[in-house]
UniProtKB/TrEMBL annotation:
One of its GO terms (molecular function) is extracellular ligand-gated monoatomic ion channel activity. It comes from Mizuhopecten yessoensis (Japanese scallop). Residues 1-27 form the signal peptide. Residues 32-229 form the Neurotransmitter-gated ion-channel ligand-binding domain. The lineage of its organism: Eukaryota, Metazoa, Spiralia, Lophotrochozoa, Mollusca. The chain crosses the membrane at residues 233-257, 263-284, 296-321, 393-413. It comes from the Eukaryota. One of its GO terms (cellular component) is membrane. CDD domains: LGIC_ECD_cation, LGIC_TM_cation. Keywords: Membrane, Receptor, Signal, Transmembrane, Transmembrane helix. PANTHER family: NEUROTRANSMITTER GATED ION CHANNEL. This is Acetylcholine receptor subunit beta-type lev-1. Residues 238-356 form the Neurotransmitter-gated ion-channel transmembrane domain. It is a multi-pass membrane protein. It is found in: Membrane.
Amino acid sequence: MIISGRVLSALFILISCVYIEVQCANATDKTSLNAALLTGYNPSVHPGSDYTTQLLNINVSFVLVSIKSFEEQTGELSIMGYFNIYWTDERLAWDPSSYSNINGTNTKQKEIWTPPFILADSSEDVSIIGDEDMPLSIYYTGVVLWSPPGTISSTCNADVTYYPFDLQTCLLRFMPWGYTTAEIQINAISSTLSLSIFSQNPTWELTSTKLETSQSPMLNFQMTISFKRRDTFFIVNLILPVVFMCFINMFAFQIPLETGDRLGFATTLLLTIAVFLSVVTDALPQSSTPSIPLLCYLLIIHILLSMMIVFCTIFGLRLYVRPSDEPVPKWVIKLTKFVHVITCNRKKISDKSDSKVSAVTNRDDGGKCDDQSIDTEDTGMTWMTVSNAFDKFFMLFFMMVAMICNLSFIFLLSSS
């Protein structure tokens, strides 16, 4: 019990002494320390005890807070975050016992040397990062910690080939302006950016980051940020409506010509797809580098298909309104019979006085067309029959073309 009491007493005395010493360190002591450190200090001269044999090691990391925006049209990336940069300046070292056991102090950026990093790919005026009144932390070993925050705006060429499923990769290069590899060396503390306090962007999803140093073409450290577009909004509001309109467009040939609405229906869909194309082009950069979005090609193809559907609708309408007593040329009759064959349609042509045509479409169990005979008499063929035959052919043809285009678009997107 006596030994335990002595031990406790010794610990109490030790803790009390430490507490008293810490309490004795006040603003006056820190003011004296700062004055002693900065007396005769030249902030224009970079640290180093031997410039001929030793390089100044600067250690860098970056904490990414958020991706503020990415403008595809202007190619500008804006991010928020702050650096953690530290190095050793022997001129700022001291003995803590001489200054009431003060282990660290603070000063302003303008009062000591800091590495003059600039953003080489800045989209704004080039300037040194930080601010002259930015506080820095100095430790008794001479280690200086500098954490300048801010919004960084950099140029970044947008690759919208697979819009709206595009993946963007932006490179931000920071150079110590005025210094070479013979004077300083930059070390990346981590191979990636810190995401400890990162907040998500509603439009862009961060996929990966990288932090590395480079010696070419100039000494610098590089931040690589990769992010992809959140595509759900564009799928629901852009891709699906275009696909639906494309297939609905084919059914224009099923609208009876007697109603007079077929041409108006086809023209309306043509204008609608053209509006969608203008919406997409307004949201994309006015450049052909590296390539035009595949979606633009798809919309252009759909516009061409819609134009052809309008043309075929007019063509079918012209056939339909021809006088019933006007004879059908033999080459048109042969072409119509050929259309009946390739569309698996067999027309039984009657030469009755009412000139009515009964259409019968038969298929066997194997999915092949029935070999029902076609009347070889040409007198029963009317222009109405020709128009109806071509309507079915056009619908099947354009539906196959649209399906091939849409599947090719999906395949190209999946391969990316």
